[in-house]
Amino acid sequence: MSFKHINPESLGRPRGYTNGLLATPGTRLLFIAGQVGWDESQQIVGEDFVEQFDRALRNVLAVVGEAGGEAGGVARLVIYVTDKREYLARTEEIGERWRALMGRHYPAMSLVEVKSLLDDAAKVEIEGIAVL
Question: Which pTM was predicted?
Answer without folding.
Answer: 0.90
